[in-house]
Amino acid sequence: MFYRLLVLALSPLLLMQGLYVRVVTPRLPEAAGARTGEAGAGPALRVLILGDSAAAGVGTDSQQHALSGQLAERLVGHYRLSWQLWAENGRTSGQSVALLERHPPEAFDTVLISLGVNDVTGGLSLNKWLRQQHRLAELLLGKFSARHVIFTPLPPMHHFPALPQPLRWALGMRAGQFNQALRGFIADQPHCSLLAFELPIQAEFIASDGFHPSAMTYALWAEMAAATIKYKHPGR
Hints:
Blueprint (H helix, E strand, L loop, with lengths): L1 H23 L11 E4 L4 E8 L15 H9 L4 E8 L5 H10 L7 E5 L2 H5 L4 H16 L6 E4 L15 H21 L4 E3 L20 H18 L4
Helix pairs in contact: 2-7, 3-5, 5-6
């Protein structure tokens, strides 16, 4: 309640700061490179990476150094890996639901999700966001035959250098509320898990725009995701 009242009182300032950030923050491109691949030997593993600008590799120059490339590198020694990347800068959870609903059925063993930051900055309500996470899981486990869905927690937005105060505080608090709700949702989903990963706050782990991950963060993220995948899908 205190958070809502304070945000309401600060709303004119927060709106102006949000517009300012959109104007002055450099718009980095998505990482260049392949968005599908097959490599390795061993048990077959089909992986989908679904999400937003972070999933698309914004903050680094190539998919090789982004989440998809770093994850594939850590899996090809254990599986006959087939992977796809469905990600776009600015994509929200609702847009991802729409993508899955219109896309033809396709089978994946594991899906790694990176969503939520654009929902927070877009002012989406917590209840609507949770309904969208339910729908994402429903579609992936049903229509796309996923055996396991890994949700990435929202990053600590209260440490993003690109965001001025008090906007940084407000968005950070909201991201924390989303993460708490996500943990509660996943606790009741036997085929879903929340990745045990938190974005480091040191400068070298943030891209030049002060908002997106750097290649170092993508490496840590991929390491944690690969460990979870190997545990859920024992390879060789």
